[in-house]
Design brief:
Elements lengths: L1 H66 L12 H8 L14 E11 L10 E11 L6 E6 L2 E6 L3 E3 L4 E2 L4 E2 L12 H9 L6 H10 L17 H12 L3 E3 L7 H10 L4 E7 L5 E2 L5 E13 L2 E7 L8 E2 L1 E5 H8 L9 E4 L5
Antiparallel strand pairs: 1-2, 1-5, 2-3, 3-4, 6-11, 7-13, 8-15, 9-10, 9-11, 9-15, 11-12, 12-14
Length: about 350
């Protein structure tokens, strides 16, 4: 009986040991499974983070690509009607009648290149200028500036939607250190003739030749009437200046028609003491050159060059509503109302 009890006790001990070993193994298996799951979870989280990061990077890259303007869009031709009308007028220079010419708004301090090898920047520009896509560089815009052309990067030049745009280099009446207090007629004639680099010579010719029929061009109280400007255009350039002003027609309609036909327009306006255009009667008379317009839902804005800007040789363009143009151009002057154009600018 004692031997049997001893065997049973040993059996119970072995059974208990086996059960503890099984329990320990089960615990280890469960721990291993938990570790495997934890590692898998970490891997999944890392993979998810990587995918999100990759997706974000891809989107950033795509946004960067699409934020760069397509230079080919800068080469869109102007309105077919404008092109056809300009081609019918042989008196307009090729550049002025070019269907590719547009008005661009340049960012502040836009660097420009004075030569086509793009080896260095010659300065900076900002404001509104006429130009076109460069024939040599599809990503560059050729800007009309300082008697010739300069190049700017197309990413800094916003092409404006216009109904008509004629090439024009804005000339300051104080250009090349000229004391041109009343030299706006000379500056405007140089713009019309596309001869901004000869402004100083034209100024001297007009002053010494007695064309300043209202007083010295260097004086703020001097100047020239339209008839004097017409004579100067004929004698210096051999060009015929024609006054298209019609009292019974809204000036904006006359100007718009001339621009549609491919002409830059010389207009006499009223200005305040700072040469800002105004419709007030009795203000000072002043010549400007209008070179384009935009039309949106019946509202017309004209683009023009105002030469009364000191401290620079070339001026950027400005814009003005058709209502103000109608009022100021049809105002009562002590000289003929003027909406003029060069009928044979090609010579």
């Amino acid at each position: 009986m004692d031997e049997e009890s001893s065997l049973n006790e040993e059996y119970d001990i072995d059974t208990a040991r086996q059960r503890r070993e099984q329990a320990d193994q089960l615990a280890r298996d469960r721990m291993h499974a938990k570790m495997v799951l934890a590692v898998a979870a970490v891997i999944l989280i890392i993979a998810a983070i990587w995918l999100v990061s990759k997706s974000s990077k891809t989107n950033e890259d795509e946004a960067l690509v699409y934020s760069v303007p397509d230079s080919s869009s800068q080469a869109d031709s102007a309105d077919d009607e404008q092109t056809a009308a300009a081609s019918e007028n042989t008196g307009v220079s090729d550049k002025q009648a070019s269907a590719e010419t547009a008005i661009y708004m340049l960012d502040s301090y836009t660097a420009y290149y004075a030569n086509e090898d793009l080896s260095y920047t010659a300065g900076t520009l900002s404001g509104l200028y006429t130009g076109r896509v460069s024939d040599s560089y599809s990503t560059m815009i050729e800007i009309d500036y300082l008697g010739g052309n300069v190049l700017v990067n197309s990413t800094n030049a916003l092409k404006l939607e216009t109904s008509a745009a004629m090439a024009l280099v804005g000339v300051s009446q104080f250009a090349y250190n000229t004391s041109g207090g009343s030299a706006c007629p000379v500056a405007c004639l140089a713009m019309l003739a596309d001869d901004s680099s000869s402004f100083s010579s034209l100024y001297s010719y007009a002053e010494s030749g007695g064309y300043a029929d209202q007083g010295s061009l260097s004086s703020s109280s001097g100047g020239m009437t339209y008839d004097a400007v017409k004579s100067l255009a004929a004698d210096y350039y051999g060009l015929s200046l024609v006054n298209a002003y019609i009292e019974s027609e809204a000036p904006s309609e006359t100007i718009k028609s001339l621009l549609d036909s491919g002409y830059n327009v010389l207009a006499l306006v009223m200005t305040d003491s700072s040469a800002n255009i105004t419709a007030s009667q009795g203000a000072a008379s002043h010549f400007i050159v209008i070179n384009g317009y935009s039309e949106n839902e019946g509202n017309i804005e004209f683009f023009y060059a105002n030469s009364y800007v000191s401290g620079t040789d070339s001026v950027s363009l400005s814009h003005i509503s058709s209502d103000i143009i109608d009022s100021t151009v049809s105002a009562s002057f002590d000289e003929p109302n003027t909406i003029a154009y060069i009928s044979d600018a090609a010579g």
